[in-house]
What does this fold into?
Amino acid sequence: MIRIEHLKKEYENVTPLVDVNAEIHDGDVISVIGPSGTGKSTLLRCINRLEKPTSGRIWIGEDEITDPKCDISRIRQRMGMVFQSFNLFGHLTVIENIMLAPVTLKGVDRQKAYDRGMELLKMVGLAEKAMNYPDELSGGQKQRIAIARTLAMDPEIILFDEPTSALDPTMVGEVQAVIMDLAGTGKTMMIVTHEMSFARAISNRVFYMDEGGIYEDGSAEQVFSHPRGVNTRRFIRHLKVLELNIESRNFDFLGMAGQIDTYCYRNHIAHALCSRIQLLFEETVERLLLPALEIPRIQAVCEYSEERKRAVWTFRYGGPRLDVTEQGDRLLCGKNRQDLV
Ligand SMILES: Nc1ncnc2c1ncn2[C@@H]1O[C@H](COP(=O)(O)OP(=O)(O)O)[C@@H](O)[C@H]1O
Ligand SMILES: [Mg+2]
It folds into this structure.
């Protein structure tokens, strides 16, 4: 089990991890998702101590790896990490790459290391490449070798940092299939990935990282189908967001119309939908909200879904709730919800 308490990691200019807390159980397969720069790699690198956390504590089983007295090299043998770039030794054959760590770090007998290496190569479907050099392999094959090399140390935990993102799209599937097989073996795994359907298929848990920590932690089904947090929902559904704030009656209406235009243009929103987005903003603000509010403080958020080609406006203000579908007479842009979005 891995336990993380109040983990913080500061760099000179940025603090990607402000307060991370988690309990990871044996056999958990966790997909770590989130926008880039939210500290996904940093989290993995803190867990295997490639990075020294600024503060907070991490336990792997009974061992506190953030304790200065902890023997990190021993702990690292219990964890494997697979990176985006495969880092195979070019001057060693495939089987030598796989045998290297068990022989040198664990003192495993060469014959045993060889036999186990061949077994692992079979498992990743590359036994016939044992005597080849990495240069002679495709990217997908190299990554499968890198996974076999990690498994050769028999780690309890495997951390994957975007294992398929450096690959040609045609090779993503073969590597994902190997990782998928591994997930079925009961190993504890954490996988940073941008491939949402893969994440959904492989993991029992998903961490959505944002705002300095694990913003949402839930089952794959929950996070992907019923995300709780605003940011999670926007990320999962690829929503393009525009936020406009109105703070007085004399707000810069033309300026905002311009911002909406730019937003539509940048997100390749069809002209007809763009006009409806403009019209709904204008009418809701001018006809419904401004006349009704004493102090006009309105936050207007437009969320556009590329997949569904739909946009939704949400208006927050201090005042009674309005159902725009009941305001049809006062809105030119339509009476039913279909026309409003
Ligand atoms: N060694 C480093 N030194 C300084 N800043 C770093 C270092 N590693 C990562 N960062 C910064 O920390 C933030 C989080 O990085 P990272 O963990 O790689 O994010 P992610 O994997 O989610 O894209 C980024 O802003 C990145 O620039
Ligand atoms: Mg990263």
Notes: The chain has a mean pLDDT of 92.
